[in-house]
User: Fold Tricarballylate utilization protein B from Ruegeria meonggei.
Amino acid sequence: MQTDLIQEARRQAEICNACRYCEGYCSVFPSLHAERAFSDGDITQLANLCHNCRGCYYACQYTAPHAFDLNLPKALAEVRRDSWERFTWPQPLARRFHTHGGAIALALVVGFALLFWATRAIGSSGGEGFYAVLSHNAMVAIFAPAFLLPLFSIAFSLRRYWAEVNGKPIQMSDLTVALKRAGKMQDLAAGHGEGCNFEDEDRFSQARRHIHHAIMYGFLLCFASTSVATVMHYGFGLHAPYGFWSLPKLFGISGGVLLTLGCGAMALLKQKSDRDLGDPSAWGGDIGFILLLGFVGLSGLVLYALGSTPLMPALLAIHLGSVLTFFLLTPYTKMAHGFYRLAALVRDAQRKRDVSMVR
Assistant:
């Protein structure tokens, strides 16, 4: 199956390389046109460099019913998903969660059950706020492994990816260029800067780019909230609960709002898009992940709003259950794409640096 997907993507890439009409569209085409022949690693790199903006498809004169039958966004999307599944450890989990939204929903239910059980069985020996329901030490014991083990899995996967795409030792300049491109979501604006064609055929739109910004920065703010709270707790002896104007609360609430709105908008946007220009088999898994991530943000906001009511223990278990599920599934859902895309951008920065040195 892997060979068939890469062979089809290679066939299409060779035709695109001969045509070169889309040369300035995004990062994919300069990288594609730099080669004369494509190894499996080259195709994997192109696939992860592609942001599925679909501009090349609507500009192409060789799409169906032409005999060439080009659909490069779909071909690269299928290779991209297959690469995540091949590199991820353990593989069976990736193959399940990348394509089945129902599996994500089931995992969420299990996450809820575990946290409800923890609040009942472990409880708290005293404390304020949320710690009156589940002790701080119990939360650390549950969530530290749930955070660290997926990071190990992702690191292992990226090492496999880096070897396949013939990655070189990373210089700080490579990482800086990649982070700037990722922060601006530059490839979702395509080469012309007018946006992409994800949701409305040949009409350019910045909607997908802005929604990605909301989700990415919302997630980073939520992560910053937890990180700052950890430093305050262990570094300065300032323990939760924190007031509204504290950094953990300001980061957490603003991040939760962006995350909830961004995921809701993304789910609606995907309903408008043409599934045949992506990987149709992964559509259910994508929607399941988006809804899970949005639920993490929404449940956190509801918990904050109703945290002083008798509903707090149940809401805390629901929110923590969703966070636990999200952490554990990170290597096996669409969340992994952020790590692979950044790695692909770093590799592309290396390619550009090598070209400039030759010149």
